[in-house]
Design a protein that fits this description.
By secondary structure, this protein is an alpha+beta fold. The protein is built from eleven helices and 37 strands. A hairpin with a 7-residue loop joins strand 6 and strand 7. The structure holds 1-deoxynojirimycin and calcium ion (CA).
Length: 685
């Protein structure tokens, strides 16, 4: 579809006739403000300036206020704030309707249909600084950013904080994790009244009393600090930028733009998931050119045994990354068509106190019991490849110094994907400047947003993709840099190994919060349902399988030991079959933190897959198979909980596998056990 743009100036005040595509908005001033609507007319954004010259924006949906007038602007450390004594100088709108293709993802093609609404604000004081606020109003929500043009009185900006507010018009329920705390994004979700949220990471999801769902987040976080939301009063939130070690939280030279502040707005939880494609639309197109070398795929690995304390990353009698151990994983991957084998603890640097300090890490120095060359060749002979691992312990500058040699070494050893890691408490990232001065940074500050891009670009040079753990949050940059495959950035399955395990509602929370930001390396498939010290994992086998569909990632681990899968080959068959790259995705049902059912179509065949997960309650969910292709018969290969399965008893290990012939329009009843799930492959004939 072509892009049609039409502009209308504020001063013209003329309602333009609708065009076939790209309807021009009526940009008439409303009570002294500027206003524009979404393509379907349901969402309206209005910008006003109050008696003190303070600019505000507001959002209405179907004529009802959703975001009350909310402040805009910045606090600067070395200049008067950009917040008062503004007037609207001009406004314009344009509309766009394009469709683009994802090289990999949950949907093959994505439509980007929006109204762009640009408001120029100018100070009425002698400084006369100019600040543009640019909105993209989609049918599914609103994104806006600041654009600060080149101007004599704003040659640089030392941003102390952003003053952007989000004043929700009513109360309701919020699902959120705390921001600014030591464990980064790795918290269980709070479910509280909106009016009891503290300081939260984004995405934060709310359900208002009238049922409207809103998820607040940001898009295209580049060279800027991550935005937290801090509740100021009632149901009003304010942007709180992640701190930095420099002279201000964000330092900008010359003209600049901020990341997009986003609100996905929907009637239900399902609408939030599909509407979150907005984040990708607000990112720039692929900047890497031909990315046919970026290959989504599954992997196994020398990993879970360290997480649960059976093996060690460090050298010694328990060392996991030995040539013999790795060979067994390669054999298993080769025999099951799995393209990747992750090995952690393969390199020199783990023997000391690496947590929060990775300055001993050598990213091209294998330990003496790991035959890097031999294993690379052995993997190749079995049709698989090693997945690299760079744990920085948070010493990011130490990693920066090795980036080029590290990725050159990975490429020379046949690696296509490297998992990175930043294990350090929040605010404890090690930054060393060229002058030798040492600083502590935040995982989601401006400096780290730049560090992550340096890593992604260094990897791209060697045709390697990356999967950072303890990352900065996802803001859709995979569109611009498609080798940025996935990341952690939430409590993953590793917490199931330890005390304080994830509760059964965790996945249904993630899908409608963290997953709205992008793919997560969750590490599904722990079919043993056993963690450290043989502790029980509060889940079921069918739910572990469903995770592959429900929690999207283009790199998906079969995280358990090969020996476990060998004993459960009938259940493992689903892990073997399930793709990681999709042509289409449909959310069939869901309530935040309660349950969700997702159907996805394989990108490389006519097969569909379904995953359904619940919380601690048993549920019967009826679904209509209206997504299946018409005129085809499918064999539904169903992996479900047994009638007496429960997450909190030994029956967690019980599952039923059955097949059924089905076609489009048929109905299926999904019976989820307490803490359980269901996974289905619809194999096309
Ligand atoms: C934390 C990561 O999430 C985990 O997957 C990894 O094994 C450890 N760091 C060590 O790098
Ligand atoms: Ca982690």
């Amino acid at each position: 579809m072509g892009r049609l743009i039409a502009l209308t100036a504020l001063t013209s005040m003329v309602a333009m006739p609708a065009l076939a595509q790209g309807v021009v908005q009526n940009t008439a001033l409303k009570e002294g403000g500027a206003t524009a609507t979404s393509p379907d007319g349901r969402l309206r954004v209005t910008v006003t300036v109050d008696g003190d010259g303070r600019p505000h924006y507001a959002v209405a949906r179907n004529g009802k206020v959703l975001i009350e007038p909310s402040r805009l602007g910045f606090l600067l450390t070395d200049a008067p704030k950009l917040e008062r004594r503004f007037a609207i100088e001009s406004q314009s709108t344009s509309s766009a309707d394009t469709t683009w293709e994802q090289p990999w993802g949950e949907w093959k093609s994505i439509r980007d249909r929006h109204t762009e609404f640009r408001v120029r604000l100018k100070e009425t004081t002698a400084l006369a600084r100019v600040m543009d606020v640019v909105f993209r109003i989609f049918d599914e929500g609103v994104g806006f950013r600041y654009e600060l043009p080149d101007q004599p009185n704003l040659k640089h900006a030392n941003i102390a904080d952003e003053l952007t507010e989000f004043g929700l018009a009513g109360n309701g329920t919020a699902w959120w994790i705390p921001a600014g705390e030591w464990n980064r994004y790795e918290y269980l979700y709070n479910r509280t009244p909106i009016s009891e949220v503290g300081q939260a990471h984004t995405p934060i999801t709310v359900k208002l009393e009238d049922g409207t769902h809103v998820a607040f987040h940001e898009a295209a976080l580049v060279d800027y600090s991550g935005m937290w939301l801090r509740r100021v009063t009632g149901t009003r939130f304010k942007a709180q930028l992640s701190p930095g070690a420099g002279p201000a939280k964000v330092v900008k030279q010359g003209p600049f733009t901020t990341p997009w502040r986003t609100m996905v707005i929907a009637d239900d939880a399902a609408g939030l998931y599909t509407g979150s494609r907005m984040t990708l639309n607000l990112n720039e197109p692929n900047k890497l050119g031909d990315v046919s070398w970026v290959k989504p795929g599954k992997f196994v690995g020398v990993w879970w045994n360290m997480i649960k304390g059976k093996w060690s990353w460090a050298r010694g009698p328990q060392h996991g990354a030995t040539t013999d151990n790795v060979k067994r994983y390669i054999d298993f991957a080769g025999a099951n068509g799995i393209p990747g084998v992750l090995v952690e603890g393969w390199n020199v640097g783990w023997d000391g106190d690496w947590f929060g300090n990775g300055t001993d890490m050598n990213f091209s120095g294998p330990t003496e019991d790991f035959d890097a060359k031999g294993l690379a060749a052995y993997a190749r002979s079995k049709g698989t490849a090693l997945v690299g691992h760079h744990e920085t312990g948070g010493s990011a500058s130490h990693y920066d110094k090795q980036l080029d040699t590290a990725f050159a070494w990975s490429a020379a050893h046949g690696q296509k994907v490297v998992k990175t890691g930043y294990v350090a408490d929040a605010g404890q990232i090690g930054r060393v400047d060229p002058d030798g001065s040492e600083h502590r940074e935040w995982h989601d500050g401006q400096w780290m947003s730049n560090h992550h891009l340096r890593v992604v670009l260094a990897a791209a040079k060697y045709k390697i993709s990356v999967d950072p753990h303890e990352p900065i949050k996802d803001t859709g940059l995979r569109r611009t840099y498609p080798n940025w495959l996935a990341r952690e950035g939430a409590r993953g399955q590793e917490y199931m190994a330890w005390a304080g395990k994830n509760p059964p509602e965790h996945e249904a929370n993630l899908v409608f919060t963290r997953m709205l930001s992008g793919p997560m390396d969750f590490t599904p498939g722990i079919l043993s349902l056993k963690g450290e010290k043989d502790s029980d994992i509060p889940s079921t086998i069918a739910k572990q399988l469903a995770q592959y569909v429900v929690i999207y990632s283009p790199v998906q681990m079969a995280a358990d030991e090969p020996e476990v899968y060998a004993k459960l080959m009938d259940a493992f068959q689903f892990i073997k079959d399930v793709p990681v790259d999709w042509a289409d995705t449909r959310i069939l049902n869901g309530e935040v933190g309660d349950y969700v059912t997702i159907a996805r179509k394989d990108r490389n065949s006519a097969d569909w897959y379904l995953g359904s997960v619940g919380d601690e309650q048993a549920r019967n969910l009826e679904v209509t198979l209206d997504f299946l292709d018409p005129g085809k018969t499918y064999t539904a290969q169903i992996y479900r909980d047994a009638p007496d399965t429960r997450f909190d008893s030994d029956t967690r290990h019980k599952y039923v596998i059955e097949t059924k012939k089905v076609k489009r329009g048929d109905r299926l009843m999904l019976a989820l056990a307490p803490g359980g799930g269901q996974a289905i492959r619809f194999a096309a004939k």
